[in-house]
Amino acid sequence: MTPFPDSAATRLRRQAAVVLLTLAAGCALAGCQNSSPATEPTTQGSTVNTSEYSTLDAAGVAAIRDSKTAKLDMTSGRLSKEAVRVTQDSYGPEINTRDSGKISLTITAPTGEISGETDRIRFNTTDKRSDFSEVTYFLTADTPEEYFELIRDGVDRYGISADSAEDWISSTQADPGSKSDFSITSGRSTGLDVNYDLRYDGGKDTQVIIVHVRPVS
Protein backbone atom coordinates (compact mmCIF):
# COMPACT_ATOMS: atom_id res chain seq x y z
CA MET A 1 0.00 0.00 0.00
CA THR A 2 1.30 3.45 -0.87
CA PRO A 3 1.47 5.75 2.30
CA PHE A 4 -0.35 9.03 2.14
CA PRO A 5 2.05 12.00 1.89
CA ASP A 6 2.53 14.03 5.13
CA SER A 7 0.62 17.23 5.33
CA ALA A 8 2.48 20.50 6.09
CA ALA A 9 0.93 20.64 9.58
CA THR A 10 2.09 17.13 10.41
CA ARG A 11 5.65 17.93 9.34
CA LEU A 12 5.68 21.07 11.54
CA ARG A 13 4.47 19.12 14.57
CA ARG A 14 7.22 16.57 14.10
CA GLN A 15 9.90 19.25 13.76
CA ALA A 16 8.67 20.99 16.97
CA ALA A 17 8.74 17.72 18.89
CA VAL A 18 12.34 17.10 17.79
CA VAL A 19 13.36 20.61 18.96
CA LEU A 20 11.73 20.14 22.38
CA LEU A 21 13.37 16.73 22.87
CA THR A 22 16.75 18.21 21.95
CA LEU A 23 16.35 21.12 24.40
CA ALA A 24 15.22 18.81 27.21
CA ALA A 25 18.18 16.52 26.70
CA GLY A 26 20.63 19.43 26.69
CA CYS A 27 19.12 20.91 29.83
CA ALA A 28 19.32 17.57 31.64
CA LEU A 29 23.01 17.22 30.77
CA ALA A 30 23.77 20.80 31.91
CA GLY A 31 21.86 20.42 35.19
CA CYS A 32 19.38 23.25 34.56
CA GLN A 33 17.22 24.48 37.45
CA ASN A 34 14.14 26.66 37.60
CA SER A 35 15.15 30.24 38.44
CA SER A 36 13.34 32.49 40.91
CA PRO A 37 13.81 36.20 41.79
CA ALA A 38 16.81 36.79 44.05
CA THR A 39 15.99 37.83 47.59
CA GLU A 40 17.73 40.74 49.32
CA PRO A 41 20.21 39.62 51.99
CA THR A 42 19.22 40.59 55.50
CA THR A 43 21.60 41.79 58.18
CA GLN A 44 20.95 40.92 61.78
CA GLY A 45 22.16 43.01 64.68
CA SER A 46 23.26 46.05 62.67
CA THR A 47 24.69 48.87 64.79
CA VAL A 48 24.02 51.55 62.18
CA ASN A 49 21.69 54.23 63.50
CA THR A 50 18.91 54.76 60.95
CA SER A 51 16.79 56.93 63.26
CA GLU A 52 16.64 60.70 63.11
CA TYR A 53 17.46 60.74 66.83
CA SER A 54 20.91 60.70 68.38
CA THR A 55 22.32 57.88 70.47
CA LEU A 56 24.63 58.24 73.45
CA ASP A 57 26.89 55.24 72.93
CA ALA A 58 30.47 55.88 71.79
CA ALA A 59 29.51 56.03 68.10
CA GLY A 60 26.58 58.35 68.82
CA VAL A 61 28.64 60.79 70.88
CA ALA A 62 31.31 60.84 68.16
CA ALA A 63 28.60 61.64 65.58
CA ILE A 64 27.29 64.50 67.74
CA ARG A 65 30.78 65.96 68.11
CA ASP A 66 31.43 65.62 64.39
CA SER A 67 28.11 66.97 63.09
CA LYS A 68 27.56 69.52 65.89
CA THR A 69 23.92 68.44 66.03
CA ALA A 70 22.01 66.37 68.57
CA LYS A 71 18.35 65.36 68.64
CA LEU A 72 16.81 63.58 71.62
CA ASP A 73 13.43 61.86 71.72
CA MET A 74 11.43 62.76 74.84
CA THR A 75 8.01 62.58 73.19
CA SER A 76 7.01 60.00 75.81
CA GLY A 77 7.86 62.47 78.58
CA ARG A 78 11.21 60.88 79.39
CA LEU A 79 14.50 59.77 77.84
CA SER A 80 15.09 56.04 78.23
CA LYS A 81 18.59 54.56 78.33
CA GLU A 82 17.59 51.81 75.94
CA ALA A 83 16.47 54.33 73.31
CA VAL A 84 19.90 56.02 73.28
CA ARG A 85 21.80 52.70 73.38
CA VAL A 86 23.45 52.87 76.78
CA THR A 87 23.38 50.16 79.44
CA GLN A 88 20.89 50.23 82.29
CA ASP A 89 23.63 51.00 84.85
CA SER A 90 25.12 53.82 82.77
CA TYR A 91 25.27 57.39 84.07
CA GLY A 92 25.42 58.78 80.56
CA PRO A 93 28.12 60.89 78.90
CA GLU A 94 29.01 64.55 79.24
CA ILE A 95 29.47 66.17 75.85
CA ASN A 96 31.72 69.23 75.91
CA THR A 97 32.64 71.06 72.69
CA ARG A 98 33.96 74.35 74.07
CA ASP A 99 37.07 74.04 71.94
CA SER A 100 35.32 73.13 68.70
CA GLY A 101 32.05 75.08 68.52
CA LYS A 102 28.47 74.82 69.69
CA ILE A 103 26.06 71.95 69.17
CA SER A 104 22.59 72.56 67.78
CA LEU A 105 20.49 70.64 70.32
CA THR A 106 16.84 69.70 69.82
CA ILE A 107 14.72 67.83 72.34
CA THR A 108 11.40 66.59 70.97
CA ALA A 109 8.88 67.03 73.78
CA PRO A 110 5.32 65.70 74.16
CA THR A 111 4.18 69.09 72.87
CA GLY A 112 6.59 70.95 70.61
CA GLU A 113 10.36 71.16 70.93
CA ILE A 114 13.06 72.49 73.23
CA SER A 115 16.17 73.71 71.45
CA GLY A 116 19.31 75.77 71.81
CA GLU A 117 22.91 76.28 70.76
CA THR A 118 25.17 74.84 73.43
CA ASP A 119 28.73 73.65 74.00
CA ARG A 120 27.95 71.43 76.97
CA ILE A 121 25.31 68.71 77.50
CA ARG A 122 25.00 66.54 80.61
CA PHE A 123 22.74 63.62 81.51
CA ASN A 124 21.71 62.94 85.12
CA THR A 125 20.55 59.55 86.41
CA THR A 126 21.47 56.69 88.73
CA ASP A 127 22.56 53.16 87.98
CA LYS A 128 19.13 51.96 89.15
CA ARG A 129 17.05 54.05 86.74
CA SER A 130 16.07 52.93 83.25
CA ASP A 131 15.84 56.55 82.12
CA PHE A 132 17.55 59.90 82.72
CA SER A 133 16.18 62.09 85.47
CA GLU A 134 17.39 65.23 83.71
CA VAL A 135 19.04 66.57 80.57
CA THR A 136 21.11 69.67 81.25
CA TYR A 137 22.61 72.06 78.73
CA PHE A 138 24.24 75.49 78.88
CA LEU A 139 23.28 78.67 77.05
CA THR A 140 25.70 81.61 76.88
CA ALA A 141 25.48 85.29 75.97
CA ASP A 142 28.18 87.90 75.45
CA THR A 143 26.13 90.93 76.52
CA PRO A 144 23.42 91.57 79.13
CA GLU A 145 20.97 92.40 76.34
CA GLU A 146 21.53 89.04 74.66
CA TYR A 147 21.17 87.37 78.03
CA PHE A 148 17.82 89.03 78.71
CA GLU A 149 16.64 87.96 75.23
CA LEU A 150 17.49 84.35 75.98
CA ILE A 151 15.46 84.51 79.18
CA ARG A 152 12.43 86.04 77.47
CA ASP A 153 12.67 83.44 74.70
CA GLY A 154 12.38 80.73 77.36
CA VAL A 155 9.31 82.45 78.78
CA ASP A 156 7.63 82.54 75.36
CA ARG A 157 8.54 79.02 74.25
CA TYR A 158 8.38 76.93 77.41
CA GLY A 159 5.98 78.69 79.75
CA ILE A 160 8.68 79.80 82.21
CA SER A 161 7.27 82.32 84.68
CA ALA A 162 7.15 85.76 83.03
CA ASP A 163 6.73 87.60 86.35
CA SER A 164 9.72 85.88 87.90
CA ALA A 165 11.83 86.52 84.81
CA GLU A 166 10.91 90.20 84.43
CA ASP A 167 11.49 90.91 88.12
CA TRP A 168 14.99 89.51 87.85
CA ILE A 169 15.70 91.37 84.57
CA SER A 170 14.54 94.70 86.04
CA SER A 171 16.72 94.22 89.13
CA THR A 172 19.77 93.36 87.03
CA GLN A 173 19.25 96.21 84.58
CA ALA A 174 19.30 98.57 87.56
CA ASP A 175 22.66 97.15 88.63
CA PRO A 176 24.34 95.56 85.58
CA GLY A 177 27.60 95.00 87.46
CA SER A 178 25.93 92.77 90.03
CA LYS A 179 26.36 89.06 90.55
CA SER A 180 23.40 86.69 90.85
CA ASP A 181 22.49 83.00 90.96
CA PHE A 182 18.75 82.69 90.42
CA SER A 183 16.40 79.90 89.38
CA ILE A 184 13.32 81.10 87.51
CA THR A 185 10.06 79.25 88.16
CA SER A 186 9.90 76.35 85.67
CA GLY A 187 7.64 76.16 82.62
CA ARG A 188 5.73 73.06 81.51
CA SER A 189 3.96 74.08 78.31
CA THR A 190 5.94 71.48 76.31
CA GLY A 191 4.94 68.59 78.58
CA LEU A 192 8.40 68.65 80.19
CA ASP A 193 9.66 70.68 83.14
CA VAL A 194 12.04 73.35 81.79
CA ASN A 195 14.00 75.35 84.33
CA TYR A 196 16.35 78.30 83.66
CA ASP A 197 19.05 78.49 86.31
CA LEU A 198 20.67 81.93 85.87
CA ARG A 199 24.37 82.37 86.59
CA TYR A 200 25.03 86.06 86.05
CA ASP A 201 28.23 87.96 86.80
CA GLY A 202 28.38 91.52 85.52
CA GLY A 203 32.16 91.48 85.90
CA LYS A 204 32.56 88.72 83.29
CA ASP A 205 32.33 88.83 79.50
CA THR A 206 30.15 85.72 79.16
CA GLN A 207 26.91 85.04 81.03
CA VAL A 208 25.49 81.55 81.51
CA ILE A 209 22.05 79.97 81.77
CA ILE A 210 21.93 76.35 82.88
CA VAL A 211 18.83 74.75 81.35
CA HIS A 212 17.39 71.74 83.19
CA VAL A 213 14.93 69.57 81.23
CA ARG A 214 13.11 67.01 83.38
CA PRO A 215 10.11 64.69 83.18
CA VAL A 216 7.00 66.16 84.75
CA SER A 217 6.45 64.31 88.03
Features:
11 strands, disordered N terminus, single chain, 4 helices, globular, 217 residues
Descriptive notes:
- The protein has four helices and eleven strands; from the N terminus they run H-H-E-E-E-E-E-E-E-E-H-H-E-E-E.
- With 217 residues, it is α+β, with helices and mostly antiparallel strands.
- It has a six-stranded antiparallel β-sheet.
- Residues 1-5, 7-13 and 16-46 have low confidence and may be disordered.
Strands, helices and their partners?
Blueprint (H helix, E strand, L loop, with lengths): L7 H23 L27 H10 L1 E5 L5 E2 L13 E3 L6 E6 L4 E6 L1 E5 L6 E2 L1 E8 L2 H15 L3 H13 L4 E5 L8 E10 L5 E9 L2
Parallel strand pairs: 1-4
Antiparallel strand pairs: 2-7, 3-6, 4-5, 6-8, 8-11, 9-10, 10-11
Nutshell version of this structure?
The chain is an alpha+beta fold. It is built from four helices and eleven strands; from the N terminus they run ααββββββββααβββ.
**How much is the average pLDDT?**
84
Strand content: 25-35%
Helical content (DSSP H or I, runs of 4+): 25-40%
Give the uncertain stretches in residue-range form.
1-5, 7-13, 16-46
Main-sheet strand order equals: 3-6-8-11-10-9
Specify the number of helices.
Answer: 4
Assign the structural class, choosing from mainly alpha, mainly beta, alpha/beta, alpha+beta, or little secondary structure. Answer: alpha+beta
For the report, how would you describe the main beta sheet?
A: 6 strands, antiparallel
The arrangement of helices and strands along the chain is: HHEEEEEEEEHHEEE
Quaternary state of the chains: single chain
What is the β-strand count? Answer: 11
Rg (C-alpha, Å):
34 Å
Distance between the termini: 109 Å
